[in-house]
Design a protein that fits this description.
heterodimer; A: 410 residues; alpha+beta; Phosphorylase Kinase, domain 1; Transferase(Phosphotransferase), domain 1; 5 domains; 6-stranded antiparallel β-sheet; 3-stranded antiparallel β-sheet; 13 strands; B: 393 residues; Rossmann fold; OB fold (Dihydrolipoamide Acetyltransferase, E2P); 6-stranded mixed β-sheet; 5-stranded antiparallel β-sheet; 11 helices; 30% strand
């Protein structure tokens, strides 16, 4: 019986390019000019990457049932505003040219500027990087769990990382085992952490066996840190605080602590005890991206949390500078608008075309600020933006690989 | 090692949906219990409740005789096998099995070596311990993943659809491996699958679930020969049992293609029902031309028009369309939906000896042994004649 190949693509993903791929051939036997190589962790399924136009897509061959399921979960996680690769399509009803049904294919868009852990270790290595990876994974796990998602397969190779002003932000790549629950059972969270701990250890030991992990990294210490940091963040975001009902300023303090960790509290539940002298505070709805939202509100820029923190600081110092040179402090909205027009955009525009894909603009701006700071420190005086930029381009950025769409020979 | 018991266990989600509804099940120490059913039947939820991933709404869970409802997953000491399947390419097979023990921190290097070597012996991986995963066959890699579970010395193994990602060949091979390993280790095992063939070939006992309710727990043979209801009868067996409308008049049973009389003790089970669903397995038909006349005494013979045939070498399938009433048709459609199967077509599937010369378009003379038939209540689906069905040894 002839099958009808069905393509289901999200609007805006140039499906015409994707439709022309050789769907009647099993993925592992494809020989197509659009194929590109990328490193990827060991998957239970065949995964290949194609570069079409300006976008890279990951194709994963799996049973239609599984493909449907994962497509649905990925979309659900994304709809919740969590960092996850974007599922853009599903191909079902494939039939081999010589007859016989083929498995379905899940199509995800590869994230620009996303980096696999092996790449990161190949350029920086060492304990600071492993700590950054742990922190990124912890934030992702807590965010998933707060929103009721169980992942079930957290590992270094199932994560992609984007640079975030010196730290990293982790994106979920593989959601075959994910489930949504409201609320997430305690047992699933515990189990998730056990899996993550073991998988992280396996990934790091594997790097060590390959000679890619600096000997200063204590694997056991790193993976135990994952549990500790998760516990701290989870407790801070979801724990119940009991305060004296007269000390209401402690409520603000709690909210500010959560903000400092990069989260907003959208809803807070407060309960009086029967006598009315104790107050229990329970953050009911927290959302990551406190600074990113503030920056977007002020400037329209879409960046990650730590980048936003960094840019907000720069806006604040620009405000102070304007106040000094103009003799009065402009209102914050004016400062933000002038900072964009007078600082950020001119700086980004000066980066030559051929170097633009190396880093995201916000990350590049962050690195530039860092670079200028070190130059100034060494020089003993404040180095200007233009000098800082020239030095950064010539001595740093020019030697960096392009990270926008990283193709690796593995 | 430990027994596992669930008593009146219920899992109700926040939206009120009961994913698992009052299930009681005793899994003996060392037993391999299969939980099987179509998607949404509650099998994985039940497994996750045993593992501690899912809270138990009501009822009790006992592991090794101890109530475990409130124990954290890790304190239950159960191994979810294959879950962390990832094998690390630069680590030796030995390290791939050993590293989780090192993380645990409770074992000396000597103890770890002893455990890994013992597991490797059981899994016939001893000669491969120094190799890298890429140097192993697909089956051997799966065994390394099992090795990780074995060295943990868990009270029981839990498998959640472990073979669903594998190709058919490796799946068959792994099924045998798991069965052999389970027997050798004598470890209590709960195994979830939607595949009835897997369930039948693996289990000591098989628990069939439907919409969160346990239908029947029995040996594969018992399930096959004495299913409690239409659902179990339709789920177990491939190709599935044929269901045809049966009009009843005293002892006389009229099927769309033949009428015959059943013994009084069978007719007694029908009560005053006038319409039943009769179930006959494909292999209980025979080509009359190939049956010794002496053996025909207990059989019902009939002629039917064969639509299509498929000759498979070891047997021949013949397809025979029949008419049915709207009432029975609708019932069978609902059943097909519940079974997750392609729509049950109103045709008999008949499995004959490969020596049969019956061809498509012919009127064939067939026989079947009426004592192997089942009669089901069309409304409740209950098997009315289950108690009378003989269990062949």
């Amino acid at each position: 019986m002839a099958r009808t190949v069905q393509f289901r693509f999200l609007a805006g993903h140039e499906p015409s390019n994707l439709i022309d791929l050789p769907w009647s051939v099993p993925l592992e036997h494809w020989d197509h000019p659009a194929l590109v190589r990328r490193t990827r962790g060991q998957s239970r399924h065949v995964v290949r990457f194609v570069h079409l136009g300006t976008k890279t897509f990951a194709l994963k061959e799996m049973s239609e049932h599984e493909a449907h399921k994962e497509y649905g979960v990925l979309r659900q996680i994304r709809a919740a505003g969590l960092p996850v690769v974007e599922a853009v399509g599903l191909v079902t009803g494939r039939e081999a040219a010589e007859g016989g049904a083929l498995d379905g294919v899940l199509v995800t868009r590869f994230l620009d500027y996303s980096l696999p852990f092996r790449y990161l270790f190949s350029i920086e290595g060492g304990a600071p990087l492993s700590h950054k990876l742990v922190d990124a994974a912890v934030v992702l796990l807590v965010r998933l769990h707060v929103d009721g998602f169980y992942w079930g397969d957290c590992s270094l190779s199932n994560l992609l990382f984007r640079r975030d002003a010196g730290s990293l932000m982790a994106y979920l790549v593989d959601a075959e085992t994910s489930q949504h629950r409201n609320p997430l059972p305690e047992g699933m969270r515990e189990h998730e952490l056990e899996i993550a701990r073991e998988n992280f250890a396996g990934g790091l030991l594997d790097l060590a066996a390959q000679g890619m992990l600096s000997s200063e990294v204590e694997v056991l210490e790193v993976v135990n840190m994952l549990l500790e940091r998760y516990g701290l963040l989870w407790d801070e975001l979801t724990g119940v605080t009991e305060i004296d009902a007269r000390e209401k300023h402690l409520i603000d303090q709690r909210i500010r602590r959560i903000n400092d960790m990069g989260f907003d509290v959208d809803e807070l539940v407060m309960e009086h005890d029967p006598a009315g002298d104790r107050l229990r505070i329970i953050p009911a709805l927290v959302e990551e991206g406190h600074h990113a939202r503030e920056l977007r509100r002020m400037t329209g820029l879409e960046v990650q949390e730590n980048q936003a923190r960094r840019l907000l600081n720069d806006i604040a110092s620009y405000g102070a500078y304007l106040a000094r040179v103009e003799g009065r402090a402009p209102p914050p909205a004016v400062v933000a608008a002038r900072w964009i027009a007078e600082v950020y955009e001119p700086m980004v525009a000066q980066v030559p075309e051929d170097l633009r894909g190396r880093l995201e603009p916000a990350e590049l701006f962050h690195e530039l600020l860092e670079h200028r700071y070190y130059l100034s420190e060494a020089a003993g005086y404040e180095v200007g933006n233009d000098t800082g930029l020239r030095s950064y381009l010539d001595s740093v950025l020019r030697f960096r690989p392009s990270e926008q769409a990283l193709f690796l020979e593995d | 090692m430990a027994s596992i018991s669930v008593k009146n266990v219920v899992k109700q989600y926040a939206d009120g949906f009961p994913a698992v509804n009052d299930i009681s099940l005793d899994i003996g120490d060392g037993e391999l219990m299969i939980l099987v059913g179509p998607s949404g039947c509650g099998k994985s939820t039940l497994l996750r409740m045993i593992a501690g991933l899912e809270d138990i709404t009501s009822g009790d869970l006992f592991i090794g005789g101890e109530r475990a409802n409130d124990k954290a997953p890790r304190d239950r000491n159960l191994a979810m096998v294959f879950q962390n399947y990832a094998l690390y390419p630069h680590l030796s097979v030995y390290e791939n099995i050993a590293f989780p023990l090192r993380l645990n921190g409770n074992f000396s290097d000597d103890e770890i070596r002893r455990k890994v070597e013992e597991a490797a012996d059981t899994l016939e991986l001893r000669d491969h311990l120094e190799r890298k995963p890429s140097q192993l066959s697909g089956g051997q890699r799966q065994r390394v993943a099992m090795g990780r579970a074995i060295v943990r010395q868990a009270e029981a193994f839990l498998f959640d659809e472990p073979l669903s990602n594998l190709d058919a060949k490796l799946r068959g091979q792994m099924r045998t491996e798991i069965s052999r390993l389970q027997r050798r280790l004598g470890i209590t095992t709960v195994y979830v699958t939607h595949d009835q063939t897997e369930a039948m070939t693996l289990g000591d006992r098989v628990a069939v679930l439907r919409k969160g309710v346990l239908q029947q727990v029995a040996s594969p043979r018992e399930l096959y020969q004495r299913p409690v209801n239409l659902f179990v009868a339709g789920f177990i067996g491939s190709p599935p049992m044929n269901f045809v409308p049966a009009e009843i008049e005293g002892r006389k049973v009229s099927l769309p293609f033949v009428s015959f009389e059943v013994p009084q003790e069978v007719a007694d089970q029908f009560g005053d029902r006038q319409l039943l669903i009769a179930g006959i397995r494909p292999e209980h038909f025979e080509d009359a031309a190939l049956v010794d006349a002496n053996d025909l005494s207990h059989s019902v013979s009939f002629s039917a028009h064969v639509d299509v045939t498929e000759w498979l070498g070891n047997e021949l399938f013949a397809y025979i369309p029949f008419e049915t009433s709207r009432e029975i048709h609708d019932r069978l459609k609902t059943l097909a939906r519940e079974l997750d199967s392609e729509s049950l077509r109103t045709q008999l599937v008949v499995a004959l000896d490969a020596g049969s010369r019956i061809g498509p378009g012919e009127d064939a003379k067939l026989t079947f042994d009426a004592s192997k038939m089942h009669f089901f209540d069309p409304v409740s689906g209950d098997n009315l004649t289950r108690e009378l069905a003989a269990v062949a040894s």
